[in-house]
Design a protein that fits this description.
heterotrimer; A: 442 residues; mainly alpha; two-stranded antiparallel ribbon; 19 helices; 73% helix; B: 233 residues; alpha/beta; Rossmann fold; 6-stranded mixed β-sheet
Chain lengths: 442, 233, 469
């Protein structure tokens, strides 16, 4: 009964303190604003994707028209022969899209640092320049977008601080803590915790409503309810973690100012100092990759492949695709030249893949360092966890790159195979290509 | 009944309370007089269970404040020197809150009755405590202790800063409580108030109970002379 | 006044907890200065090695068709600025590598932020992070109680009766606490400059002075405002809460919200739309006039007329080089138009954002800090423009060689020799001197001074009617 009374009276403590109410209102306003920012980026990306699909569809229909009418070449490019695998695949527009997840509403994460659509060709790679992020003001990116995760990670601790900073210390400083103790009985900690729990309940209720509201903006509640629940759980854990730290400070602290200083200090430490030290450390020990190996592979590597003796190129191609060694084109020395020239992109792709693996490994080693700091760097941990759930984490984009590579591989393999087997592309084959190049291998 | 038997307490090697023995019977008010640092508040804090004596025993109606803290506190009404309370709650709300902390549920009428009995006028009940004078806050503090229906009252400088009228009302209330059988210890600097309210008076100096006398045996002037004599020596 | 300041410093220097905090702060600030310096050195080394490597590759071309070389291209890497160790600005966000090649102006790619998962929303442990976020908090904590403690302890009455004026007391205490912040600032910057002594030059000195000035003014604003609130508000805790709320709103909330708002007010095109528009302008001609085929026909006619011949084969030069250069030049016009619009939009965003300084001096400080450190978007754009200028020169040299090097039209096998490739100059970035860009930051300086004046007036006249009780 008395615990309920404490909770009931805490409501009065709360509503009669204008700072706490204003802080809560500001928090809710910031969270709603953040959710709308997330939803806005989601919608913007969706719109962009629609425009790309439209463009692809137009191009596709134009090509289909050629096949239906039996036109081999567009009038302005007579050298093109769409019945050959090379030109058919060359002109087949395929984009691989990273569809934004509906939970992007909660965390924009690294979504603005990467491209989310990529035209696939046999010469493409997941680190091409067209993988650059959307055009944005770098100063805005540097300041950071106020999304929901920002509100959770950085403003929740401040809100909780403003909620609980004066608990116990006010009674102590005003000289009636003893009175409270005498009234309450033996264990005043229960009174303290009951009061703090009230604010946890307020916050959890607020977060639940906000998260549900956010879920309606992008329909995440319908498409990814389990992720909405995960977000809720992460936010609960994060808020509770901060509240536990604050409870410890309040439990052992005596004065209001000292408690506030310690809470602010803790916030600065976890939100600013530790993450910035970790980042600085990585930046010094694993400096930004200027992609020299990739540059080399794209320029000199390519040159070197083409400068090799024909027999060497053939051998390399046969090693990669053993089935083509006995293909009709391989048996004819004249046809072989054409096939070789049109399928040499497979070797470039193979070489680039090795370089890309090195780059990925280097990036992963940075990620491992970051992950290894999580035990003392919880804000970064929760930030990345939220990004994961929202599909805006580095790993999500890495996975997207991986898919791009898979689609390039499919395209290159098909091209090589069909060139060497001298396939003829008709409408049916073209439609088959279209399907095949959009489907990720299992 | 409060029994303090050969209690001592030191802080950083300095004795603050030395071998103090004092008994307060039911219906009795005992005043502790002494200068700052004489050990009055330390004594009260040990009785309240906030401090553990280095030596000796304390018993509240047969209970040990150190071991049976919760039971003891249920029986104690405590009025600190400055009853500041929550400034944004009204007097009535503060009383309600503190009663609920003690797990006592009263109706609104009962609560207002307590306030009235402690001298807080009706027009002040719903005003925020932040607008109260010190005397009014003190009355709410007393009402909190009174509403607890405590058998033991501990008052730390209760009349400090009160105007004569409020001080007088406090005296009347304490007498009323003792008349109902409460055991009361009142720590104070105010010789005249102590003389007027208390049945017995103890003079503390450097942690020692240097003199114990019955209030009715001395006049206020004589008490002052005795007190000053001890303080000067 | 002097006595008030020295007395306040005595208090600051004799408070044990404050000494511990100050000492810890100095250690962190010095560590940040050193780490900033170290990171700069690592980046410089990386940059120099990459630049040298790419240049060596270019110079090692024995012979190549100039147009082949234009496709082979080169790469430029974004160098570090001396003061970016203090304020990293947009450096971690923008890319680091830009491919310079024919036909196309590439985007800068491979930013540091894209090479790992998220770590810090507020960047690296640079001087700016501490000086912008943490030192102000310390100053707020030092200031909020300065007057209130005098009031609550009754000393204020005594001081007034001893002849001190309330105004003098408040200004004196403000200056004393401001001096504390200024000392931390000065120490950080001095140590950083000592590390960089070898690379200092006039422009960097001037930039450093402007940085010092901006931070100093901001610190005064914070100290003065907190002291004023400390006098106005009876309870010290309420004064502290007010200032903390203001700090959160100024430093965390508003920059975010305002940046998003200005992006909405002056929207940038999507990359897809932007690229498509450029592509169309280049092929169909700007605004649909003068498509590329017609341009080519016209140009061919002009060249033939100029050389007085009736067919390409009779030309003493290789017309392909001239055609490519003409196409490049048209492409440059298209680029100037579209990127010009883009830069204009970015400039409009910046100007609108700068206006935020009227309600939030932190915004002005942040702008000024990045700007004077040479790590803001303006300096980034300046870099990109220089790269584009270089690209134009680079491609023109190659096209001219293709046209006038000795080959005939249609001859794509002709090759330029190594001496030619060596003669193509490497890209050298010329940093923008602060004098040329100072006007861009005048708005920020003006708002900081506006706030400074406002706070000074508050301290001088706002204390007039205040009671000491």
């Amino acid at each position: 009964m008395k615990y309920l009374s404490v909770l009931f009276f805490e409501w009065k403590h709360f509503v009669r303190n204008p700072f706490k109410v204003i802080a809560w209102v500001l928090f809710v306003a910031a969270a709603i604003y953040g959710l709308h920012n997330g939803a806005s980026l989601f919608n913007k990306q969706q719109k962009e994707i629609e425009a790309i699909y439209k463009k692809v569809k137009e191009q596709y229909e134009k090509n289909i028209d050629y096949y239906q009418k039996g036109i081999k070449s567009p009038p302005d490019r007579p050298w093109v022969d769409n019945t050959t695998p090379f030109w058919a695949i060359w002109n087949l527009p395929t984009y691989h899209i990273k569809q934004p997840e509906t939970t992007m509403v909660y965390s924009i994460g690294q979504a603005e640092q990467f491209g989310f659509y990529k035209q696939i060709s046999v010469w493409a790679s997941p680190y091409d320049a067209d993988m650059a992020e959307e055009i944005a003001n770098p100063e805005r990116l540097q300041v950071g977008t106020l999304d929901f995760s920002f509100v959770i990670l950085y403003l929740t601790p401040i809100l909780l601080l403003l909620f609980v900073y004066n608990i116990k210390s006010t009674e102590s400083e005003q000289g009636f803590l003893h009175l409270v103790q005498v009234q309450w009985g033996a264990n005043i900690q229960a009174w303290l915790i009951a009061r703090i729990v009230f604010y946890l309940l307020i916050l959890l209720l607020t977060l639940t409503l906000l998260i549900v509201y956010g879920a309606t903006l992008t329909k995440a509640i319908l498409f990814a309810p389990e992720k909405v629940f995960q977000t809720l759980l992460i936010c609960f854990l994060y808020s509770t973690g901060w509240l536990i730290l604050y409870t410890i400070i309040i439990r052992y602290g005596t004065t209001l100012v000292s408690n506030t200083l310690q809470m602010i200090g803790l916030w600065l430490l976890f939100a600013f100092i530790i993450p910035s030290i970790v980042l600085q450390n990585i930046s010094i020990n694993k400096p930004v990759n200027l992609m020299l190996t990739f540059i080399d592979a794209q320029r000199d590597g390519r040159e070197k492949i083409f400068a090799q003796a024909d027999s060497v190129i053939d051998k390399q191609l046969f090693t990669l695709y053993p089935q083509i060694e006995n293909s009709p084109m391989a048996k004819d020395s004249i046809s072989r030249i054409l096939a070789r020239n049109f399928s040499a992109s497979a070797l470039v792709n193979h070489q680039l893949k090795q370089i890309i693996e090195e780059i990925n490994n280097e990036n992963e080693s940075k990620n491992s360092i970051i992950s290894s700091t999580y035990w003392f760097n919880p804000v970064t941990f929760f930030q990345n966890t939220l990004n994961h759930v929202s599909g805006t984490h580095y790993a999500n984009y890495q996975h997207y790159r991986h898919q791009i590579q898979q689609l390039i591989d499919v395209r290159v393999a098909t091209l090589t195979n069909d060139i060497w087997f001298n396939a003829t592309v008709d409408l049916k084959k073209y439609q088959q290509y279209t399907q095949q190049f959009q489907t990720l291998p299992n | 009944m409060i029994e303090i038997s050969q209690v001592s307490k030191s802080f950083k090697g300095q004795k603050v309370v030395n071998n103090l023995t004092l008994t307060v019977n039911e219906g009795e008010i005992v005043g502790l007089l002494g200068a700052n640092g004489a050990g009055k508040s330390t004594t009260l804090n040990m009785v309240l269970g906030f401090l553990t004596p280095d030596a000796g025993n304390i018993s509240i109606n047969g209970l040990d404040p150190q071991r049976q803290t919760q039971e003891v506190r249920k029986q104690i009404g405590y009025i600190p020197e400055n009853v500041n309370l929550y400034p944004y709650l009204s007097g009535l709300e503060n009383l309600d809150y503190f009663c609920s902390l003690a797990n006592i549920a009263y109706t609104k009428n009962q609560l207002t009755d307590f306030l009235l009995q402690c001298g807080l006028q009706e027009n002040a009940w719903h005003k925020r405590v932040g607008t109260y004078s010190k005397g009014m806050r003190q009355k709410v503090g007393i009402a909190i202790a009174y509403a607890k229906k405590a058998k033991v009252f501990l008052l730390d400088e209760p009349a400090s800063g009160l105007d004569p009228l409020a001080s007088n009302e406090l005296s009347d209330l304490l007498k009323k409580l003792s008349g109902e059988g409460a055991s009361i210890i009142m720590a104070s600097h105010d010789i005249f108030r102590v003389k007027e309210v208390c049945h017995r008076i103890g003079i503390l100096k450097s942690g020692n109970l240097v003199k114990e006398l019955r209030s009715k045996d001395v006049s206020a002037n004589e008490l002052e002379q005795v007190y000053l004599a001890y303080m000067k020596n | 006044m002097w006595q008030i300041i020295t007395n306040e410093w005595r208090y600051l220097s004799r408070t044990k907890s404050l000494l511990v905090i100050s000492f810890s702060f100095i250690i962190i600030l010095l560590a940040a200065a050193w780490l900033g310096y170290k990171q700069n050195k690592v980046h410089e080394k990386n940059y120099a090695e990459a630049k040298q490597y790419v240049r060596a590759e270019w110079e090692s071309i024995k012979e190549m068709n100039p147009h082949g070389a234009a496709h082979y291209g080169t790469y430029v890497f974004k160098p570090t600025q001396v003061l970016s160790g203090l304020d990293d600005g947009v450096n971690a966000i923008t890319g680091n590598v830009l491919r310079v090649e024919g036909h196309v102006q590439n985007e800068m790619v491979h930013s540091e932020a894209s090479q790992m998962q998220s770590v810090s929303k507020f960047g690296k442990l640079k001087g700016a992070l501490l000086l912008q976020y943490i030192v102000p908090l310390l100053l707020i904590f030092l200031s909020y109680h300065a007057i209130n403690s005098e009031k609550q302890s009754g000393r204020l009455k005594m001081l007034i009766f001893q002849g001190s004026r309330l105004r003098t007391l408040v200004v004196g205490k403000t200056i004393a606490i401001w001096l504390y912040g200024f000392s931390l600032l000065l120490l950080t910057i001095l140590v950083y400059l000592i590390f960089h002594a070898a690379t200092m030059h006039t422009d960097v000195w001037l930039r450093t002075f402007l940085l010092l000035f901006s931070y100093s003014v901001y610190y005064f604003i914070l100290c003065g405002l907190t002291l004023f609130l400390s006098l106005r508000i009876q309870q010290a805790a309420v004064a502290l809460t007010c200032m903390l709320t203001l700090w959160v709103v100024w430093s965390i909330f508003m920059p975010n919200i305002l940046q998003s708002a200005v992006s909405a007010w002056h929207p940038l095109p999507s990359r897809n739309v932007f690229k498509q528009a450029m592509k169309e302008d280049r092929s169909k001609g700007i605004d649909g006039h003068n498509p590329s085929e017609e341009r080519e026909k016209e140009f061919r006619k002009e060249v033939l007329a100029k050389y007085g011949v009736d067919s390409v084969e009779k030309l003493p030069i290789n017309i392909d080089g001239l055609l490519m250069q003409a196409d490049e030049e048209y492409g440059n016009i298209v680029w100037d138009k579209h990127f010009g619009e883009l830069r204009n939009t970015l400039a409009q965003q910046k100007q609108s954002y700068q206006l935020g300084g009227i309600i939030n001096p932190f915004i002005s400080l942040q702008n000024a800090s990045m700007g004077f450190a040479g790590s803001d978007n303006y300096h980034h754009q300046h870099y990109l423009l220089q790269v584009e200028t270089y690209r134009r020169m680079f491609i023109k040299m190659l096209n001219d060689k293709h046209a006038f090097g000795g080959s005939k039209s249609g001859d794509w096998d002709w090759k330029a020799d190594n001496a030619f490739f060596k003669s193509v100059p490497d890209f050298e970035y010329q940093e923008s001197p602060i004098q040329t860009s100072l006007t861009l930051y005048l708005t920020d300086i003006a708002w900081l001074l506006f706030w400074f004046t406002l706070v000074f007036i508050l301290l001088l006249f706002g204390t007039h009617k205040l009671t000491v009780l």
